[in-house]
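Hi everyone, sorry if this is the wrong subforum. Our group has a chain we'd like a structural model of before ordering constructs, and none of us has done structure prediction before. Sequence below.
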Amino acid sequence: MTNATELLQVARDGRGVVTLTLNDPARFNALGHDMLAALQCALADVAQDDEARVVVLAAAGKAFCAGHNLKDMAAHPDLAWYQDLFTRCSRMMLAIHRLPVPVIARVHGMATAAGCQLVAQCDLAVASEAASFATSGIHYGLFCATPSVPLVRNVPAKRAMEMLLTGDFIDARTALAEGLVNRVVAHEALDAEVESLVQAIVQKPRAAVAMGKALVYQQRELGLEAAYQLAGQTMATNMMDEAAQEGARAFAEKRQPAWKRG
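Answer:
Right subforum, don't worry. Here is the predicted structure as tokens:
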């Protein structure tokens, strides 16, 4: 099933793979109010879809996402307008974080400011060798404060601070070395590399993936003892799931697990 809007294209396949494609190439897929609303709605739909297994976040045109549109921001010199924009953006980023399925960024081109934030917020990211990344707001007098939140949770602090303070671009290979993306491939191999990650995920039990994603992010914000307590409880709960029980039986019987879909 495919659903297309002006700014965001949504496609679903029979495996539960949902592809969201930012579709505003003339404005480099900027995260304006309408784009944020479209993404928020699509993510809410995925959250309620028990058949969904993974989300691929892609983009049309030359750029992946240039962040917020500075022309729009300059046209609305109003504190309430800015607060609303950044609240909407943060709400959308948190929706990705809370989604029970992994989100893979398919980054084919430039990702700047909130676009770089979007890559950092996704659970996984595959980049073309042509991709580049920057938190460039500082060039225009605006420190990329909200992009810094997921950036410092992906990239070592001093490297993140350098990106934030200089606004300089890093290339895809540097982004890979520093942990911003998982894989970098030639542009023509990008879809195949994304598909390899998708296939690896959809083969796994949905419940285990959902519990695992939630646990990884929750324990990261805790002290060591509390993190171990949460992780232990999560594993115990996970083992009560039929998929884990089947996996344990399959291991004992030296065969492949016969998991039910989901």
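For your construct planning: The chain is about 50% helix and 15% strand. The domain at 206-252 is CATH 1.10.12.10 (Lyase 2-enoyl-coa Hydratase; Chain  A, domain 2).
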